[in-house]
Amino acid sequence: MVLNSPRGTSDIFGEDIKYRDFIINTAKSLFELFNYSEIITPAFEHTEVFNRSIGESTDIVKKEMYTFFDKKGRSLTLRPEGTAPVIRAVIEHKLYSENLPLKLFYVENMFRYERPQKGRMREFWQAGVEAVGTEEPFIDAEVIWLLNLFFEKLGFKNLKLLINSVGCSICRREYIDIFREFLKPVVKSLCPDCFLRYEKNPLRIFDCKINTCLETLKNSPKIYDFLCTECRQHIGKIMEFLKVIGVNFIIKENLVRGFDYYTRTIFEIISEDLESAQNALGGGGRYDKLIGQFGGPDTPSIGFAVGIDRTIVLMKQLKIKFMEGGKQSRIFIISMRDDFKHYSFKLAKFLRDNNLSCEMSFLEKSVGSQIKNAEKNKFSHVIIIGEDEIKSGIITMKNLKTFEQFKINWKKQLLEFLELFK
Ligand code: AMP
């Protein structure tokens, strides 16, 4: 029997690891530049953490959670998203009482029981930030700027940044009444899921991907047009701040996101080069009531998450190139005879002690085919160790990119030797 990884999961190796490292390193250094510090939460939580925050009528809670009972009968759930666990930790450790805004970031795997397809997995990775403790619109603008800058740093050029406000509890309630009125005559033409959503949580109808529902929504009233004065001013200031720092955005008046905890600002970054159902690379929003809902003090907050796997798919598709930090030189040492390997071993120790990546040949093949092998595996330099080299200490080094050759007594000219790999 052949054992495969479970459907919707993947092994990550080879080229994908390099993309992933680049994305995660870029995220971490950028988030730290904006004064975020890392938090790691458990891969599973008490199921209630998600039920109470994401919303009982969302797709995630209704259909997509990996929920199980442990041996003591406790209901646990593999985290489907990062915000609720971070907020649970903030409350548990009373982090909100320290300097505000508290800025945290995470890089973690998430689990959702979705129908797998390209860019949609059952286990996937997200990098995200949460800024806890202020409702100042400049924080919204800063978080949105950070999301946009992150994708710019990765080398993306034609992404679209969509922004909307879903209002506060007061104006949203008014909008929902108006939206229900609009749907009333056509409610029977909605899909069975949306028919139920109509009563329970009509905003979730905007998550529907079914054509008849999408058609119905085309002419629907838009939440953005029904914002109260405070909410309108809030989003207005965010737009001003974004203009000040030159971040381009589009107001999408009917944008909603798949979590119930959002209030006011929501945003998404999309690529038209991805299939429309999965075209969001990342998104987020403000959640002013979530900490209060969890029993903590009212603490307005905002965050976003980006999908690492989907970003890799698009970087490869668009052939976005990147520099692999610190790994430019990779040296391949070829020993011409088996008993020269001790010498090669010493040389490898010296290179690695000096942070240079190298590999020794363990294959009993001709020197020519070993050089070919080194080229194929993208080594930058080759050093061949033979009898003369060992006797004289003078080794020949070949740069596989420029084909230049250097002879050097590496033990006597240590610094010059290391300089050759820069
Ligand atoms: P969300 O947490 O739903 O707001 O999603 C934020 C980002 O995570 C999305 O824009 C995607 O890039 C990524 N993402 C969400 N769900 C999946 C999934 N099932 N598979 C891969 N990436 C996902």
Summarize, please:
With 422 residues, this protein is of the alpha+beta class. It has 15 helices and 16 strands.
Walk me through the structure.
The protein is α+β, with helices and mostly antiparallel strands. The chain folds into 2 domains: 244 residues, Bira Bifunctional Protein, Domain 2 (BirA Bifunctional Protein, domain 2); 90 residues, Anticodon-binding domain (Rossmann fold, 3-Layer(aba) Sandwich). Helices cover 37% and strands 21% of the residues. The protein is built from 15 helices and 16 strands. The strands form 3 sheets. An 8-stranded mixed β-sheet has the order 1-5-6-11-10-9-7-8. Strand 15 and strand 16 form a beta hairpin. Helix 1 packs antiparallel against helix 5 and helix 5 crosses helix 9. The mean pLDDT is 91. It binds adenosine monophosphate.
Topology record:
Layout: H1 15-33, E1 37-38, E2 44-46, H2 47-54, H3 59-64, E3 67-69, E4 75-78, H4 83-92, E5 102-111, E6 123-132, H5 137-154, E7 160-165, H6 169-183, H7 192-200, H8 211-217, H9 229-244, E8 250-251, E9 263-270, E10 280-286, H10 290-293, E11 301-307, H11 308-317, E12 330-335, H12 341-353, E13 357-360, H13 367-376, E14 381-385, H14 387-392, E15 394-399, E16 405-409, H15 414-419
Parallel strand pairs: 1-5, 7-8, 12-13, 12-14
Antiparallel strand pairs: 2-4, 3-4, 5-6, 6-11, 7-9, 9-10, 10-11, 14-15, 15-16
Bound molecules: adenosine monophosphate.
